Amino acid sequence: MKRMTITPQATLLMLALAAATQVQAQDANAPRTRQQVQAEVLQAQRNGELPTAGEFGLAQKNSQPGFSSVTRSQVQAEVARAVRSGTLVAAGEFGHRADQPAAPLAATAVAKTRAQVKAEFAEAVRSGDVVVAGETGLTRREAAPLAYRGVEPVSTTVARRAN
Question: What is the residue range of the signal peptide feature (predicted)?
């Protein structure tokens, strides 16, 4: 049987390969440089992968609609047809057609003087019937009921005055 011998050169070559493999593994886990991070951000920006501003957190490529295949003159012709036929929807949140007037505002029964309105508001503040800031829709009385214990609400006071 022939015995295998390892020469010093072969030993050095194996050690060098093992060391190179460890260095590559360490490089993958090493912190990135400022230039590397800037390059990654630019690439993400080019790809539309950065999040958009706002509450949704969508990537830019998902939040912006694609380009339209319709030309400007085609859109203008479509709008002109909608105006002629009366199907153009007016701008805003109500969804009424442009050829129909908006619903009239409800007429107030009795106009109040500025002094009456100010007195009514002061009474509402005193009794906690003013809505607190924010999106809850709670009145001060509802938000802090102990602070208005024993204070009569404005609605009861106004009803009693009317009778």
Answer: 1-25
